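Hello again, I could really use a second opinion on something today. I've been staring at a protein lately and its backbone has me curious. Please have a think about how the structure follows from the sequence. I owe you a coffee for this, so here goes:
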Amino acid sequence: MTDPLRALGPVVRLAPAKLNLTLAVVGRRSDGYHELHSVMVPLGLVDRLSLAVLPAGHDSLHVAGRPIGRPADNLVLRAIRAARGAVTAADPRNPVPSLAARLEKRIPVAAGLGGGSSDAAAALEGALEAWGAGLADVERLRLAAGLGSDVPFFLAGAPALVEGRGERVTPLPGPAGEPPGILLVTPAVPIRTPDVFAAYDGGARPAAGSGARAASEHLAAELRGRLQARRLLDRAGILAAANDLTAAAAAVVPELVPFRRRLTRLLARPVGQTGSGPSLWVLYPSEGAAAAAADEVRAALDDGRLVAPGDEPPFIAATTIAAGATVPAAAGRPEEGGTIA
C-alpha cells in the first residue's frame, strides 16, 4: 500500500444513476429477499464524489445539491467504513487515514434510480484509490452486497444482467450506435423499496403472464449479440411493461397511475418505471430529442395540462444510456462480458 498522505489531490469519482430496462421478480429466497432478473444500464446523469485524505480527525461528508437526509446516515460514510475495515483486516500494521468526502448530489433519492447505491460504490472504490490499497474482486463484491442490493451493479461500470437479490452481476455490451436518449420524470413522492416489496408480497402484482421474465431474458440475449440502439427503441413498448413492481409502486402511491397515463398521452410514447419507482422513463433516439420532450413536459406542468403528484414539481432530466464505464475502472475489474459473481 502506498502512503496516502503523499497524495497530490483528492480522488474524484462520478456516480451514475441506473435504469432498469427490465425487472422481473422470479421468486422469494430463504433469506427473505426476492430473486430478481433485471437488465440495468448506467446513465449519463451522475453525482460527483471527491475524497481527500485527512492527516487527522474523523471521516466527514459535505453534501451540495439535492437533499439526502442526515449525512451521518449516508451510504458514502458507511462505504468508507466498510472499506477501511477490510483494508485494516488484510494488513493491521498499516492503518489507513480518515477521508473528507464531498458529494455533489444530482440524482433524486428514493426514486428507483440507485443514486445512494451508486454513491456507495463510488466511495468504496474511491477510498481504496485514495489509500493506495487494493482488495480482491470477491472481497469488493462482498462489501458492496453488504451495503445494498444495487451496489454490486455499480462496480461493473457497464450495462449488466443483474440476478439474485443483486449480487450476481454479468456485464453486457451496451446498445450499438448513438446512445439512446432517456427522459426521466420523477414525481416528488419518494418511495421506500421495502414498502414496494411489502405491497408486492401483499398481492399487488402484475397480471398472470405479464412477460417481464421473458422480456428480460430476451433483452439480455440481444445485448450480448450487439443490439443496435435503434432496435432498442423498437422494443420500448415491451420494455415499458416489463417491470413486475409497477403495480406494487402504484399500491403505495396510487397517484402514479393517472400521472403515468397522462404522461403517456402527452408524449405519445411508452412510459416505463425504473426499479421500485417512482421515476418514470421514456426512450428517444438521442439526448437532444429527450431534452425537447423534457421541455414539453415542463410546459405542460406550467399550463396545467399535466398535474404531478407530490407537493413539489417533479424532477425532470434528459440523459443517455452510458454504454461503457462511467466511473474510473478499478484494478481487476472484469472485462466486458465477464462476471463479478
Notes: Residues 115-131 form the longest helix (17 residues). Residues 4-171 form a domain with the Ribosomal Protein S5; domain 2 fold (CATH 3.30.230.10).
